[in-house]
């Protein structure tokens, strides 16, 4: 894992909204924690976790690096579908982190061996369905193509936890810099309509256009992630009474 220095920003890049500045300062505190190929290797569920998911080549690792302002915090393989582990990052003060990010394997790349894909899918499913610390999901969708059938399957899989408000959802329409204004507006409206099917009184669902190149949507995404943090002490109380419900088969599944 290559840990480079944060990318430098000019004064023109600094947002004027204090809340956005604070949120960006928080996301930029992200640092690598550990890699897990088994659910049993994950840390205790004592901090809220945000899972980053998306189709291979949708810009997942790039989005994480952009939020953290580290060029290679999350490794973006040149071969799509090669990420074979759950990579975890801590966010917040070094001596008292207040959240973790979980970079899950990308899905949908046909060149990956079928057996490996099935193992990855099982681990992802077990994590998304049973991880008690999971507080939110950030889903990367290529803004040029919209939701693919696999994206829709994943949304359907997590729909119950999202509908109850147990797990929040943020969809980033990536590579928005490749769209003109009309195309971007159409992509956003289409995504909002699709996500409307998941909407309930308790659901917390957001969507925004995002570009690592132009930094479009960066402040909005950081602000959403920051507001997802529970009140101080809430996770500690929950961790004392809740345990992850993965079965032995689930816990033993390899990525």
CATH topology: Rossmann fold
Order of helices and strands: HEEHEEHEHEHEHHH
> What is the CATH architecture assignment?
3-Layer(aba) Sandwich
The coarse silhouette is globular
Q: What is the β-strand count? A: 7
CATH superfamily caption: P-loop containing nucleotide triphosphate hydrolases
Compute the number of structural domains: 1
Can you tell me the residue ranges where pLDDT is under 50 for at least 5 consecutive residues?
A: 1-12, 238-255
Number of helices: 8
What's the helical proportion of residues?
25-40%
Whole-number average pLDDT? 83
Strand order, sheet with most strands: 1-3-4-2-5-6-7
Largest sheet: 7 strands, mixed
Kindly, what is the distance between the CA atoms of the first and last residues, rounded to a whole number of angstroms? Answer: 18 Å
Question: Mind telling me the C-alpha Rg?
Answer: 17 Å
Beta-strand content estimate: 15-25%
Which secondary-structure class do the elements indicate?
Answer: alpha/beta
What is the name of the CATH class? Alpha Beta
Summarize the structure.
The protein has helices at 18-27, 60-68, 114-130, 149-163, 181-195, 218-227, 234-241, 248-252, and strands at residues 31-36, 49-54, 86-91, 99-103, 134-142, 168-174, 205-209. The protein is of the alpha/beta class and 255 residues long. The chain has one domain (16-252): Rossmann fold (3-Layer(aba) Sandwich), CATH 3.40.50.
List keywords for this structure.
255 residues; Rossmann fold; 7-stranded mixed β-sheet; alpha/beta
